[in-house]
């Protein structure tokens, strides 16, 4: 899963540098609304909502914003009717890209996506042409400082994790989507802090790209992420450690 490791590192570093809190809050509110709409407003009975709330708290979203978003999702407060749509496309060198969208207007969303892909050297693809190569996984970090690598990995696997990798200052923990919250709960009981918990998509196969192509791909992906309706973007390209470091500082 090294491709996802490097992808995660780039996104987390760039996210911290960008600090576009308004955009982050908008995405989190949409996720809370849809989670509450599809699974109910009780986080104890709705794992997706529980994850969204925890992520919102981690990003310092005010409690009242979270509560208002839940009520919009359950229909207690009126608001836009969002739906979740997955779009697929290709970037440079045939790299596959999956875009998770949450929108109240699919025509607007697909028009903006088509324009952005075209502008930055990619193109939208038929449904199913790319998504098959991405496996859904639960994913979160545990800070590695002060922890013994072998001991933590054993604890995580005993807690139900599928895989654990040491990545810079964190352990990256992967789970099946169904065991995601069970694993988090088990590790929290052991006293481990959980960060960046999310359901994600991990590429089964990756495409190695050079420095120039990686930069072009990142421009495309960042432009997609800036679209209001876009929640998350995934790609299956692989870069060297040197290129990764350069991208993370860009």
TrEMBL record:
Where does the TACO1/YebC-like second and third domain start and stop, copy by copy? Answer: 82-237
Q: Which GO terms describe its molecular function?
A: DNA binding
Asked if the keyword DNA-binding belongs to this entry, the reply reads yes
**What Gene Ontology cellular-component terms does the record carry?**
cytosol
Q: Which Pfam families match?
A: TACO1_YebC_N, Transcrip_reg
Subcellular localization(s) per the UniProt record: Cytoplasm
InterPro entries referenced in this protein's UniProt entry, alphabetically: Integrase-like_N (IPR017856), TACO1_YebC-like_2nd/3rd_dom (IPR048300), TACO1_YebC_N (IPR049083), Transcrip_reg_TACO1-like (IPR002876), Transcrip_reg_TACO1-like_dom3 (IPR026564), YebC-like (IPR029072)
A single GO BP: regulation of DNA-templated transcription
Q: Which ranges carry the TACO1/YebC-like N-terminal domain? A: 5-76
Alphabetized, the UniProt keywords read: Cytoplasm, DNA-binding, Transcription, Transcription regulation
Transcription found in the keyword field: yes
Q: Which residues cross the membrane?
A: none
The entry sums up its family as follows: Belongs to the TACO1 family.
- Protein name, entry field: Probable transcriptional regulatory protein CLOAM0931
Q: Which organism is it from?
A: Cloacimonas acidaminovorans (strain Evry)
Q: What is the lineage of its organism?
A: Bacteria, Pseudomonadati, Candidatus Cloacimonadota, Candidatus Cloacimonadia, Candidatus Cloacimonadales
């Amino acid at each position: 899963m090294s491709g996802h490791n490097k992808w995660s590192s780039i996104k987390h570093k760039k996210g911290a540098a960008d600090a576009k809190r308004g955009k982050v809050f908008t995405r989190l509110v949409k996720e809370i609304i849809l989670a509450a709409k599809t699974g109910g407003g009780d986080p104890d009975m709705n794992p997706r909502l529980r994850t969204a709330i925890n992520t919102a708290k981690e990003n310092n979203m005010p409690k009242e914003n979270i509560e208002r978003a839940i009520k919009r999702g359950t229909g207690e407060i009126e608001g836009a009717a969002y739906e979740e749509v997955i779009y697929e496309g290709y970037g440079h060198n045939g790299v596959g890209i999956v875009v998770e969208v949450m929108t109240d207007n699919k025509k607007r969303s697909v028009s903006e996506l088509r324009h952005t892909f075209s502008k930055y050297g990619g193109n939208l693809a038929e449904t199913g042409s790319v998504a098959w190569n991405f496996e859904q996984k639960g994913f979160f970090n545990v800070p590695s400082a002060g922890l013994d690598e072998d001991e933590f990995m054993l604890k995580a696997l005993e807690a139900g994790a599928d895989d654990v990798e040491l990545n810079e200052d964190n352990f990256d923990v992967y789970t099946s989507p169904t065991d995601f919250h069970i694993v988090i709960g088990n590790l929290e009981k052991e006293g481990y802090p959980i960060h960046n918990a999310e359901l994600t998509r991990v590429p089964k196969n990756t495409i190695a790209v050079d420095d120039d192509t990686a930069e072009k791909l990142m421009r495309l992906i960042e432009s997609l992420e800036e679209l209001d309706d876009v929640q998350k973007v995934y790609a299956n390209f692989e870069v060297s450690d040197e290129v990764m470091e350069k991208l993370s500082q860009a």
